[in-house]
Amino acid sequence: xxxxxxxxxxGEEFADAIRRxxxxxxxxxxxxxxxxxxxxxxxxxxxxxxxxxxxxxxxxVRRRLRHLMRTRLTAIPRGSLLVVRANPPAASARSExxxxxxxxxxxxxxxxxxxxxxxxxxxxx
Length: 125
Description:
By secondary structure, the chain is α+β, with helices and mostly antiparallel strands. The protein is about 45% helix and about 20% strand. The protein has one domain (about 5-110): Ribosomal Protein S5, domain 2 (2-Layer Sandwich). The longest helix is centred in the C-terminal third of the chain and has 28 residues, at about 95-120.
């Protein structure tokens, strides 16, 4: 499971990541990444609405996403806020497909972050 220190719990953190963070989406998942300058572990939160399914299905999807994020946590910059929202197709997805979708979304978010920092350091706008 995801380490306790890396779990997002406060509503303000969810709101900040969703409102002010970068967004990347796929049919199964949408992720919001808000980078902050802080020397603390990244915080990860999950949103699985009733549109995904009943309580058992939602909890299963959330557990699978937490398990997948555990191995990907080191790729997230320290101090960042990441919110992963599951869409209805995530309920019936195989774990391998869910992992692939998560990798694509995270790659898009992190690639965009690298190009932004490169632009700032190069002096280009």
